[in-house]
Amino acid sequence: MITFQLNGAPIQIADQGQTLLQVLRDDLHLSGAKLGCGEGECGACTVLVNGRPVCSCLIATETLEGAAVTTIEALAETPDGSEICSALARTGGVQCGFCTPGIVMAWAGRHPDDTPDDALEGNLCRCTGYVKIRSALEQTGSLPTKPPSTFDKADLSLKDALACLAENPDLIPIAGGTDLVVRAGHNLQSLRLFPLARLNAPELHQVFREGNTLVIGALMRWQDLLHDPVIAQTVPILRDVAYGVGSPQIRNAATIGGNIATASPAGDGLPALVALQARIRLVHRDGTREMPIADFITGPGRTQRRSGELITGFVIPAKCLGQPQTFSKVGPRKAQAISKLSLATVKVPDDPAGISFAFGAVGPIPMTCPKAHHALASGIRDENHLRSVAEQAMSEITPIDDMRSTASYRRRVAGNLLIRHCRELFAHDS
């Protein structure tokens, strides 16, 4: 059985491999959250989990042990929720109403720094447009809802978790689940999930110094990375990556460890960590090991993680901390889009080329283009030389034609991005 709080009251549900949305609508008959896209893009299914807006269609119920879930049915009865609903009605921000519950939840649980545009990034409305919705939300004086009290769900030591994983190799570790649930087609019954939320391991949720290096815990959510002051000061490239990972609903669930473990060629975090020359830290009940991220990813969806191992963090070397960094993501739209290609570039003082870079979505793994990197180190970095380096990089990457783009487009844009990044970072030398 899974025990959590629903709208302030304890509830138990059977562990039947369902999503939170399936339980809310089919079992508990709470119909405010709607099934729209099923992939975390429309926001119609938004609820609050521990005060954070998330897509309930992507939340595996196994991850809810000890959590506090709030739906529109309860929020609308609170002063803040009632004020938001009334403002939407007054301004004509409601027509068919399908998206409205998700909009109310997203605004009620927004980050304190969010504007209406930020908070609504993950909510689609096909009736009213957004002018009246934005106007309504700007009229509400309510502050973001404070996270409700929760049970202590971190009931498992890291040692016991590793023993369990070693003895049960079919267990699948799950953090946010925003990729896993989609890949499973929302049919989780056949999967044995191991919720990492149970881990009593605070360091996995933190950013901290370890000597001269910076360690990022694998369970850091992208929304927290986006607003973390240490990240902004030392590795701002990860803040820039976080903006494009997804909507606030996705960022509130998805973790940096999950982004790397998924090993998607289009994963936004992969090229950034490779360019930062980060090392991944893995722990097994028999010991701990580290390796470069560039070596950890072996192909689409394939890594060197062994059975029984957990990713616990990422170690960023001192030489990359606080250096000029830039990240570019090219997609069919500004937000909520899978990369057509991406490029992460970091100034590295002791590197012969002066920079470290990695492309995403133009090969089966993050592409570092060693020949182009070597060529960059051997020239004077004028325009002719940069164009030559870009041409070399274009010959090393291996993009494909797919539904999002053509190989020729990706190749040309990759070369242009590399020139742009080099100009920007080398300008710091003058």
Walkthrough of the structure:
It is a single chain. By secondary structure, the chain is α+β, with helices and mostly antiparallel strands. The chain has three domains: 1-200, Beta-grasp domain (Ubiquitin-like (UB roll)); 201-320, Uridine Diphospho-n-acetylenolpyruvylglucosamine Reductase, domain 3, CATH 3.30.465; 328-429, 2-Layer Sandwich (Enolase-like, domain 1). 34% of the residues lie in helices and 18% in strands. The protein is built from 18 helices and 17 strands. It has helices at 20-27, 72-75, 79-91, 100-108, 116-119, 131-139, 158-167, 180-183, 222-227, 229-234, 236-245, 248-251, 256-262, 269-275, 293-296, 370-377, 383-396, 407-426, and strands spanning 2-6, 9-13, 46-49, 52-55, 68-70, 172-174, 193-195, 207-210, 213-217, 279-284, 287-292, 297-299, 302-303, 310-316, 325-330, 341-347, 355-360. The strands form five sheets. It has a five-stranded mixed sheet. It has a five-stranded antiparallel sheet with strand order 8-9-14-10-11. Strand 12 and strand 13 (302-303) form a beta hairpin. Helix 3 (79-91) crosses helix 4. The longest helix is centred in the last third of the chain and has 20 residues, at 407-426. It is globular. It starts with a strand and ends with a helix.
